[in-house]
Amino acid sequence: MHRTFRAAVVALVAATALAGMTGPAYAGDPTAEDRAAARSAAERGSKLYNEKKYAEALDALTRAEALLHAPTHVLMQARCHVALGQLVKAQEAYIKVTRETLDPKAPTAFKGAQASAATELQALTPRIAEVTLVVVGPGADGATVTLDGAPVPAALVGMARPLDPGKHVFAATTAKGARAEVKVTLAEGETKTVELTLAGGAGVGPEAPGPGDGTPGPTGPGDDGGSGGSGLRAGSYAMMALGGAAAVAGVALTVVSLKTRGEADDEFDACGVGCFGAPADSVRDLDAKATTLGNVSIGLYVGAGVLLGAGIGMFVAAGSDAAAEPKTGSVEWMPWLGFGRGGVSGRF
Hints:
By secondary structure, the protein is an alpha+beta fold. The protein folds into 3 domains: 2-126, Serine Threonine Protein Phosphatase 5, Tetratricopeptide repeat (Alpha Horseshoe); 128-197, Immunoglobulin-like; 224-347, no CATH class. Helix content is 54%, strand content 16%. It contains 9 helices and 9 strands. The strands form 3 sheets. A 4-stranded antiparallel β-sheet has the order 3-2-5-6, with no helix packed on it. A 3-stranded mixed β-sheet has the order 4-1-7, with no helix packed on it. Helix 1 (2-19) packs across helix 7, helix 4 (54-67) runs antiparallel to helix 5 and helix 5 (71-83) runs parallel beside helix 7.
């Protein structure tokens, strides 16, 4: 495939010149100045592509195509999009080349561009991720939905759509101001459903526990819980134990992640630089697995730090309470964890 890339780049400038001589089917009666400018832009784009300055190369090739249409321009644009990680745009460019009806007298370079586009499109398609976005909750039907800050048409909500691999932010906002946001990282070829759950009120997120929902709230000045030093100390031990367990789990996942990354490196070395097909898919799968494990381990480390910090704070507070005058009555403390929240519950 790399030899095909080099051959197409070498032929690009010549093909641009030939495009101006094939008549309105390609050029739309361009002027001599247009042809010269397109030839210059295409030559610059090819040079920048070889230098791996893909964004600049794409700009030059887009200008060349605007001046003078040539399948070779569009093919090189597709390759720039691939190098920039813009796989969906690359797919559309490849499809445009493959579906074009060429004149029987079209340059050989144009016919070669179509053949290359078909081959590269077949290799690219499995790499594109696919996401189905679902919005639920009060006001979901009329919510404004965005993807990476750009509006998402209502017709695309609930329907699978192709998406570039990488990090993305999905958000939905109702007329009353309720908002939901989800950040995801997509691996190549991953199929995923993303759900945005809207709360009932303006700007409402996950509700914190409190009186009336089955979970005791913080004790006030008139509550007997103010002297529960021994209870706080027991709670601190539990929090620190949970933090230690999270840290151990994080270390274990880190070890597995590094091992998986090593397996990916070994498979890539065995496959070689021109790796493609099933061996390349296996390498990508191992890399994606290693990344996922690494991300989870980082989350566990963060959770461990929060739990250990909370436990230490409770332990210090228990020492302060022990110095105060004890009150009658028993107090039991129990740490609790929920999605995106945590704390300590008391029972008197």
